[in-house]
Design brief:
The protein has helices at 24-31, 37-45, 86-94, 124-131, 157-168, 244-252, 265-275, 306-315, and strands at residues 11-14, 50-51, 67-70, 96-99, 103-108, 138-139, 148-154, 174-181, 189-193, 196-200, 206-210, 218-227, 230-237, 282-291, 296-301. It is α+β, with helices and mostly antiparallel strands. The chain has three domains: 11-70, RNA-binding S4 domain (Structural Genomics Hypothetical 15.5 Kd Protein In mrcA-pckA Intergenic Region, Chain A, Roll); 86-160, Pseudouridine synthase (2-Layer Sandwich); 172-315, Pseudouridine synthase. The strands form three sheets. Strands 4, 5, 6, 7, 8, 9, 12, 13, 14 and 15 form a ten-stranded mixed beta sheet that branches. The longest helix is centred in the middle third of the chain and has 12 residues, at 157-168. InterPro entries: PsdUridine_synth_cat_dom_sf (IPR020103), PsdUridine_synth_RluA-like_CS (IPR006224), PsdUridine_synth_RluC/D (IPR006225), PsdUridine_synth_RsuA/RluA (IPR006145), RluA_PseudoU_synthase (IPR050188), S4_RNA-bd (IPR002942), S4_RNA-bd_sf (IPR036986). Keywords: Isomerase, RNA-binding, rRNA processing.
């Protein structure tokens, strides 16, 4: 029912018990169906969204029973989400590799962002919500836009909270990636234990570097085989920092092939000409974890993306 002291269309929603602790922005994305992330942040910044009558920040955590004021969102409001292209929806549907009552897993295509914003209309979560209207889907974690592979989306609030707790716990989720590193990495397993600091370049672009003031970060690189003078590796990470594998690989002097941020442009050009590699050769291959206090184990896999497999074959 509209609030008599506010414009017609304003709604007040009580936060249900199963949303206790959820971030305000994620709660709003579930309530304002179809509204892009950028519009949601704009509504919060302008004070049109109120929690218990007060302004709140997008990252604020809600409590069960909180009263959230939702402003009207007009269908023709600037920035309102359009309907995702059918081809993109079909691509996302085809990417699902696992599903049960608690979660679903996709093999994210390279070039698709985890979520919309900053000029991106549709990310993984917007596309899945368009495919599954009314389902309470939530991103558990993110992958870089250029990285392909396994992503997990929670279908139940209880699963989301358990997975978020495991992500905060070192080693709580086993993460395995496949990557092509430039040059010849030594045989065996090479561990990089180097803190990473996230900085911003001009224009707001994130750039990560090894820095003593950064957050502890640990990656393990194991050469699986040599291809065309490059090193095809399995990478296991104990922490999940922004650009961790890419920054650690560059720190070793063996950047991930096709990395236009941390790699060597000349090496990338040669790999593009020789192997047809036109993007970052980094693929999230598997995740291993257990829910319900260990009673529900999961081992999820996403096969190497076809374009990366083809590039590997061309290297001989």
């Amino acid at each position: 029912m509209a609030d008599q002291t506010n414009p017609v269309g304003v709604r007040h929603v009580r936060v249900p018990d199963d949303r206790d602790g959820q971030r305000l922005d994620n709660f709003l994305l579930g309530q304002l169906k179809g509204a892009p992330r950028g519009l949601v942040y704009k509504l919060v910044r302008s004070g049109q969204v109120r929690v218990n009558g007060k302004r709140a920040k997008a990252e604020s955590r809600l409590s069960a029973g909180d009263d959230v004021r939702l402003p009207p969102v007009k269908p023709d409001e600037p920035g309102q989400a359009a309907v995702p292209p059918r081809a993109l929806l079909e691509r996302m549907q085809a990417s699902i590799v696992f599903e049960d009552r608690a979660l679903l897993a996709i093999s994210k295509p390279s070039g698709v962002a985890s979520h919309g914003g900053s000029g991106i209309s549709f990310g993984v979560i917007e596309l899945l919500r368009a495919l599954r209207p009314g389902e309470p889907l939530e991103l558990v974690h993110r992958l870089d836009r250029d990285t392909s592979g396994l992503m997990v989306i929670a279908k139940k609030r209880s699963a989301l909270l358990q997975l978020q707790a495991l992500l905060r716990e070192e080693g709580g989720i086993g993460k395995r990636y496949l990557a092509l590193l430039t040059g010849r990495l030594p045989d065996g397993t090479l561990t990089v234990d180097a803190p990473l600091h996230v900085g911003l370049r001009q224009g707001g672009e994130r750039h990560v570097r090894v820095d003593p003031t950064g957050k502890p970060s640990r990656s393990h690189f194991t050469v699986l085989e040599r291809r065309g003078g490059q090193s095809y590796c399995e990478v296991r990470i104990e922490t999940g920092r922004t650009h961790q594998i890419r920054a650690h690989a560059a720190h070793l002097g063996h950047a991930v092939a096709g990395d236009d941020k941390y790699g060597d442009p000349e090496v990338n050009r040669r790999l593009r000409d020789k192997a047809g590699l036109r993007r970052l050769f980094l693929h999230a291959a598997s995740l291993e974890f257990a829910l319900d206090d260990g009673r529900s184990p999961y081992v999820l896999n996403a096969p190497l993306a076809p374009d990366l497999a083809e590039a590997l074959d061309r290297l001989g």
